[in-house]
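Researcher: We plan to redesign the surface later, but first we want a full-length starting point. C-alpha cells attached.
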C-alpha cells in the first residue's frame, strides 16, 4: 500500500492542489487527465444539445437519416454508440444490415434499405448503408462493374427524392491514416475483448488500401451534392473525431453552415 505524507495532505484545500499532489506522487499525469476531462465535458454538452434537438424532431414529426461510412477500424461503431447513448431509444434506431439474403439479392438494390427509412419523429442511423455498393462491394468483387455503375448513377436521384420528400439526410465518412488503421487492426487481434470486431474483410484492408482510396474518392465525386453532401472527418484521434461527428450532425439539424466546424472536416458536394 502506498504511503503518503500526512503533513502534505493536510495542506490540500483546493482541487488543483489535489491534482498537483497526485502528479507529484506519480499517480496521475495532469495533461492526460485534463485531456480526458475536456473531452468528456465537451461530449456531454454535445449529447445534451442533440437530445434537445431530438425533442424537436419528435414534436414536429421530422424524419432524420444519418449515414455512417468509413475506413475499416475508423471508429464508426464507437462514434455511433456515443451519438445514440442518451437519445430516447423509442425514437432512434441503429441499422446495420447483414449480407443480403438470396431473396434480397434478387430485389432492386435499394429495396431492403427503404424498409429501414425513418418514420415521423424518428432518427435512423445507418452503420454502413447502400454505399456498400460504392466501395466495399467493388473492392472485393461482390458486385459486377455494371451493377456498380448502375448504383452510382441511381443513388444521387434516389437521395434527392428522399430529401424532396422531407427526410433530413446526413452523410459522414470517417477517414484515418494507413498507419493508424494498421495499429488499430493489430490491437483488435491482440485484445481478446476486441477480437470480435475483426471481419474477414478487415484483414485485407491494408493490402487493398490504394484500391479503397480510388473508390472512396469516386464516392465523394459522384455522390456528394449541395443537397446531400459528404462530410469527411479526417482524424486519427478517436475522441476528436467523435466530437467532430456530433458537430456535423447538430449543425445539419439546426441548419448551420458546416465548413468551419473543424479544420479536419472536409465537405464534398
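Model: Full-length starting sequence:
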Amino acid at each position: 500500500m502506498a504511503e503518503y505524507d500526512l503533513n502534505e495532505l493536510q495542506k490540500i484545500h483546493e482541487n488543483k492542489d489535489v491534482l498537483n499532489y497526485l502528479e507529484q506522487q506519480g499517480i496521475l499525469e495532469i495533461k492526460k487527465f485534463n485531456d480526458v476531462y475536456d473531452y468528456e465535458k465537451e461530449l456531454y454538452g454535445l449529447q445534451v444539445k442533440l437530445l434537445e434537438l431530438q425533442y424537436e424532431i419528435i414534436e414536429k414529426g421530422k424524419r432524420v437519416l444519418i449515414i455512417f461510412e468509413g475506413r475499416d477500424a475508423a471508429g464508426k461503431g464507437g462514434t455511433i454508440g456515443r451519438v445514440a447513448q442518451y437519445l430516447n431509444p423509442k425514437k432512434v434506431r441503429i441499422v446495420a444490415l447483414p449480407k443480403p439474403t438470396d431473396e434480397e439479392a434478387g430485389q432492386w438494390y435499394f429495396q431492403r434499405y427503404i424498409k429501414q427509412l425513418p418514420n415521423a419523429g424518428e432518427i435512423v442511423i445507418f452503420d454502413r448503408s447502400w454505399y456498400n455498393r460504392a466501395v466495399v462491394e467493388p473492392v472485393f468483387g461482390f458486385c459486377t462493374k455494371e451493377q456498380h455503375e448502375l448504383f452510382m448513377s441511381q443513388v444521387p436521384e434516389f437521395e434527392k427524392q428522399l430529401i424532396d420528400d422531407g427526410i433530413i439526410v446526413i452523410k459522414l465518412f470517417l477517414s484515418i491514416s494507413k498507419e493508424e488503421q494498421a495499429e488499430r487492426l493489430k490491437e483488435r487481434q491482440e485484445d481478446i475483448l476486441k477480437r470480435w470486431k475483426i471481419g474477414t474483410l478487415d484483414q485485407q484492408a491494408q493490402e487493398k488500401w490504394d484500391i479503397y482510396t480510388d473508390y472512396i474518392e469516386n464516392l465523394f465525386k459522384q455522390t456528394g451534392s449541395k443537397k446531400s453532401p459528404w462530410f469527411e472527418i479526417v482524424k486519427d484521434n478517436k475522441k476528436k473525431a467523435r466530437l467532430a461527428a456530433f458537430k456535423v450532425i447538430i449543425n445539419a439539424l439546426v441548419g448551420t453552415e458546416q465548413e468551419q466546424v473543424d479544420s479536419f472536416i472536409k465537405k464534398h458536394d
